[in-house]
Design goal:
The complex is a heterodimer of chains A (325) and B (124).
Chain A: H1 7-27, E1 30-38, E2 41-49, H2 52-72, E3 77-81, H3 90-105, H4 115-118, H5 132-139, H6 144-149, E4 154-158, H7 160-177, E5 183-187, E6 190-194, E7 203-209, E8 212-222, E9 225-231, E10 236-239, E11 242-245, E12 259-266, H8 269-293, E13 298-303, E14 309-311, H9 313-316, E15 319-321
Antiparallel strand pairs in A: 1-2, 2-5, 3-4, 5-6, 6-9, 7-8, 8-15, 9-12, 10-11, 12-13, 13-14
Chain B: H1 11-29, E1 38-42, E2 48-52, E3 57-62, E4 67-73, E5 76-81, H2 88-91, E6 101-104, E7 109-113, E8 121-123
Antiparallel strand pairs in B: 1-2, 1-7, 3-4, 4-5, 6-7
The chains are: A alpha+beta (325), B alpha+beta (124).
């Protein structure tokens, strides 16, 4: 073991690098997470902060803000007329304003007035599709343009999905206003991502395989945005050999059939959620064109056959495929 | 310091130096030996039950509506039965990925597998 004079300097250098690494790691702050069963799902708040009290208090405030909005949309439906919407609380008005924007962005494929049809469906096991007559009657009250043309008449709006997205956005802003720059508010897989990961890398978000939810089909690397997925595999039933799921086409009142799932990246969770529904209804061809035309929006379509995936150009370099396990 | 070259380090010295660095790093990073994942069941009243995922167990958990039955087997976990209207928790089937979860929201029960999946989140 002669001529080992280099060992001491090497050990010192290794130690210094380790200290530098640790100091960087510590500067990223501690990781905090809490979960809550709310809005008919599990909401996770993950954040990186430097003070235990501040972080825990911020997470509690985020949950409180979600609970307040959830109380306004408890049933997922709002009965409102176009002219009467101004009498509702601010969050309801804001959700209705966003619903109107989403209706236009998706060429009517996301239509909140689908509420008068979706309440006819029951997605429990052993259910049946609604009778054609009742479906036809329900469809007479579907159409945001119709609602605007009869301003004093109450329509049933199904805004459960985008209201959840809106609540996630509000909670994320609570965290941002408290000074947290790296955080995730995740409501059952629809999420708002603040900033980047604390190590400076983008967030890595995995996408489930729609037919084998225990498996992942791929992942996307994204930052400071929202991600939401609409899939046909969460609420569904089988009837006479047919599979009926909860994402309804406002034109027919029946489940949309062209996709298994659509994942959307957008600036806010509310927009991502509404777009995911609308693009799912439009399908991988028309929906792709719509998504491509929107600024700061990307989409991943899994076709109804489950064999094909289509990605908008802006997400292609940020998508990684995972071998099914 | 003036005669660093005279320092004679043995193989033992080397092992001790690098072992100390390794131990120090582990202590500072708070890392511990990897242990088997756990199934963490949280009910409405925040009561938490932990089961080693390698166990074979069927457990009944009292929730808001009644008893949910949860099965742990072959490194996986699932809801076998639950008094909820739509049985979304049961339709989810088995899960085995660290960090993954199934919830029976109407009955107020959350089942999560401990650990990290390697992803920051999973959609949906």
């Amino acid at each position: 073991m002669k001529n080992l004079h280099f060992v001491l300097p090497v050990a010192i250098v290794v130690t210094l690098i380790s200290i530098a690494f640790l100091s960087k790691h510590r500067s990223q702050g501690e990781f905090y997470r809490d979960s809550c069963l709310i809005m008919d799902t599990v909401v996770d708040v993950n954040l990186w902060g430097k003070g235990d009290l501040d972080a825990r208090s911020a997470i509690d405030s985020a949950f409180v803000s979600i609970a307040k909005i959830d109380s306004l949309f408890k049933e997922g439906m709002v009965r409102v007329s176009w002219s009467g919407r101004e009498h509702h609380p601010i969050p309801t008005r804001e959700v209705l304003r966003l619903a109107d924007s989403l209706y236009r962005l998706t060429l009517g494929a996301f239509d909140p007035t689908i509420g008068s049809v979706s309440r006819l469906w029951d997605f429990s096991d052993g259910s049946q599709p609604p009778q054609p007559d009742s479906l036809k009657a329900g469809l007479r009250m579907v159409g945001l343009e119709k609602m605007k043309n009869v301003p004093g008449k109450d329509f049933i709006l199904d805004v459960g999905g985008i209201a959840k997205g809106y609540a996630i956005d509000v909670a994320a802003e609570v965290l941002r206003n408290r000074g947290f720059e790296s955080a995730i508010v995740n409501g059952g897989g629809d999420m708002r991502l603040l900033g980047k990961r604390p190590d400076g890398k983008p967030w890595r978000i995995a996408i489930r395989d729609p037919r084998h939810p225990g498996n992942l089909i791929g992942y996307i690397d994204v930052e400071d945005c929202a991600v939401a997925t609409s899939g046909d595999y969460e609420r569904f039933f089988f009837y006479e050999g047919g599979r009926y799921h909860h994402i309804l086409d406002p034109k027919t009142g029946m489940p949309a059939v062209q996709c298994q799932s659509v994942t959307v990246v957008a600036p806010t969770a509310c927009i991502a959620d509404g777009l995911a529904t609308g693009l799912f209804v439009l399908g991988p061809r028309k929906g792709f064109d719509v998504a491509k035309s929107l600024e700061n929006v990307e989409a991943i379509f899994i076709y109804a056959d489950g064999d094909s995936i289509r990605l908008t150009p802006g997400i292609q370099n940020r998508f990684g495929e995972l071998a099914s396990n | 310091m003036e005669n660093l070259q005279a320092t004679k380090l043995t193989l033992g010295d080397l092992i001790v130096i690098f072992a100390l660095i390794g131990i120090g790093l582990n202590l500072l990073m708070g890392r511990t030996q990897a242990s088997p994942a756990q199934v963490i069941i949280t009910s409405t009243d925040r009561q938490i039950t932990r089961i080693d995922i390698t166990e074979e167990r069927i457990i009944e958990v009292e929730g808001k509506l009644g008893k949910s039955v949860i099965e742990v087997a072959d490194g996986k976990v699932r809801f076998v039965n639950s008094p909820c209207p739509h049985h979304l928790c049961m339709k989810r089937g088995w899960i085995d990925m660290p960090g993954d979860w199934i919830a029976c929201v109407p009955n107020g029960i959350l089942v999560r597998i401990s650990g990290e999946s390697g992803f920051d989140a999973v959609t949906p």
